[in-house]
Write a structure and sequence with these properties.
single chain, about 190 residues, mainly alpha, globular
């Protein structure tokens, strides 16, 4: 753990030496007043709905994942190795292949249809986890969980593309990204209460 912490500190420090590829562009734009930059994203009704959706999504996902490992260990009676395989390794392996697939589909069909489809796909995940508690429904439940895991990268890519569209080509576009991060953090904090 200490080694990972040291590596993380070194990683963060190395960014200080990275050259900014847009330094000339940034200097050519006049600075905006800070309060105006903060107000701008919140004036956008669509962006406010987007933030609300992100808070709700993060609230639901973090709330579920807090108890996933306890559920797998205590209710499903899996050992530590299987719990880590099903809770960490397998979802990450699925995502390695799912991200490029969803990226191509977003490029072809657009972010809104993929966002809708993947949101529906992900709704079967909690039902699948509940089914895994029954010995007779473990494998069908696991299949549902894995299908919902395939949907998550598409959902994430779609929402990220929406975020980039809000922040793109606007003076103070980084304020949109900052508010998005605050919304995600708020959802996570609220789910832990």
């Amino acid at each position: 753990v200490a080694l990972a912490g040291i590596a993380g500190m070194l990683d963060s420090g190395l960014y200080a030496f990275a050259k900014d590829p847009h330094e000339k562009h940034r200097r050519s734009h006049p600075r905006q007043p800070w309060l105006r930059m903060i107000r701008e994203p919140l004036k956008n009704k669509g962006f406010r709905w987007y933030l609300g959706a992100n808070v709700a999504f993060t609230f639901s996902i973090v709330g579920l994942t807090q108890y996933l490992f306890l559920f797998l260990l205590d209710e499903v009676k899996l050992n530590n190795k299987m719990t880590n395989l099903l809770g960490v390794t397998l979802p990450l392996l699925i995502q390695v292949f799912a991200y490029p697939m969803w990226g191509r589909l977003i490029d072809r069909f657009g972010k809104k249809p993929i966002l809708t489809i993947t949101a529906m796909i992900m709704t079967i995940g909690p039902a699948g986890w509940m089914m895994t508690a029954s010995p007779t429904l473990f494998w069908p439940g696991l299949v549902l969980v894995l299908i919902s895991t395939v949907g998550f990268p598409g959902f994430e890519c779609s929402t990220f593309n929406v975020m980039l569209e809000y922040a793109d080509a606007r003076a103070g576009g980084t304020a949109y990204i900052a508010f998005n991060n605050i919304a995600i953090a708020l959802g996570g904090v609220l789910s832990g209460l």
